[in-house]
């Protein structure tokens, strides 16, 4: 069945990030329990970014940078993000020399990310005054460091590489951003296309509620999510509990300030083609009903 048919049948096309960091938002979410038909594609962030921007998805978490590329066509679901107010633990630079030295050389960037690769460019060039050379690579640490001074990995690739760390210096990009700007950093946001939001506001409301509800239940007790992560990826239960408790899944004023600054720097460096104006979806139908 082609994309056109899916659209005509009223199916809502959802995305989901493949990495463990989004699990609290999905642990108690079931797309088949929604009152309307929906399909979910689970992919690496870079793939979801492309699918969303090409109009192949109606609602998806994506790299916040990808949202910044097209704020005119998309809205953010409220109170959802993958953020960190300091160390994130899974967005890591590996280097053989201290980061402040290595950052002036050659940087290997994972091809799975958009937010973090641009965050590293901002930090390297604005905070460290570096003019590095960048190469984009598959997320394989040993291969990356054969040809580069710094390797950036994100998500589960970063977590596994950190566990196997063979003595590399590890620099957490969330911590770098916080130390430099004093702000939190938002890596992923849940976006809905303005077209889909206009067509089906009730469905978007139901979806936003279901995701928020799953998140609330997961964060009230992260143990079940941490146990699932341990069963599927290994590691210690305490590691996963600490990992999920450290991440921020909200979209408060503080998060938006951090994201806004990131977009501003990205624009200044020519990484974003235009200014990014953040706009959050609100359920106008519900407000009208309640008035
Ligand atoms: C916290 C993380 O955030 C991820 C980072 C992304 C990016 O750099 O583009 C995209 C989605 C997020 O899930 C992580 O990967 O560890």
Task: Describe the structure in your own words.
The protein has a 5-stranded mixed sheet with strand order 7-6-8-5-9, with helices on both faces. It has a 3-stranded antiparallel sheet with strand order 3-10-4. The protein has a two-stranded parallel sheet with strand order 1-2. The protein has 2 domains: 3-84 and 185-290, Periplasmic binding protein-like II (D-Maltodextrin-Binding Protein, domain 2), CATH 3.40.190; 91-181, D-Maltodextrin-Binding Protein, domain 2 (3-Layer(aba) Sandwich). It contains 15 helices and 10 strands. It is α/β, with parallel strands linked by helices and 291 residues long. The radius of gyration is 19 Å and the shape is globular. The longest helix has 20 residues, at 201-220. Bound molecules: the ligand C=C(O[C@@H]1C=C(C(=O)O)C=C[C@H]1O)C(=O)O. The site of the ligand C=C(O[C@@H]1C=C(C(=O)O)C=C[C@H]1O)C(=O)O has 18 residues, from helix 6 and strand 10.
């Amino acid at each position: 069945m082609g994309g056109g048919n899916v659209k005509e049948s009223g199916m809502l096309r959802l995305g989901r990030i493949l990495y463990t960091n989004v699990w609290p938002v999905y642990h108690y979410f079931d797309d088949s329990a929604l009152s309307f038909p929906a399909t979910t594609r689970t992919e690496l962030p870079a793939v979801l970014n492309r699918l969303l921007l090409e109009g192949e998805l109606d609602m998806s978490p994506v790299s916040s940078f990808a949202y910044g590329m097209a704020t005119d066509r998309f809205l953010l679901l409220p109170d959802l993000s993958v953020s960190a107010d300091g160390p994130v633990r899974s967005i890591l630079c590996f280097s053989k020399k201290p980061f402040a030295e290595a950052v002036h050389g050659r940087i290997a960037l994972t091809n799975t990310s958009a937010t973090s690769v641009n965050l590293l460019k901002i930090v390297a060039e604005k905070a460290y005054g570096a003019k590095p050379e960048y190469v984009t690579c598959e997320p394989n640490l040993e291969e990356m460091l054969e040809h580069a001074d710094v390797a950036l990995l994100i998500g589960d690739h970063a977590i596994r590489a950190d566990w196997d760390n063979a003595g590399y210096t590890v620099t957490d990009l969330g911590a770098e951003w916080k130390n430099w700007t004093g702000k939190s950093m938002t890596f992923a946001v849940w976006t809905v296309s303005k077209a889909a939001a206009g067509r089906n506001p009730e469905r978007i409301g139901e979806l936003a509620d279901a995701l928020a509800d799953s998140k609330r239940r997961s964060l009230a007790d992260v143990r079940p999510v941490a146990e699932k992560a341990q069963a599927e990826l290994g590691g210690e239960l305490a590691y996963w509990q600490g990992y999920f408790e450290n991440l921020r899944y909200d979209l408060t004023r503080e998060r938006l300030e951090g994201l806004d600054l990131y977009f501003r720097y990205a624009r200044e460096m020519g990484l974003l083609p235009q200014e990014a104006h953040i706009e959050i979806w609100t359920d106008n139908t519900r407000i009208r009903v309640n008035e």
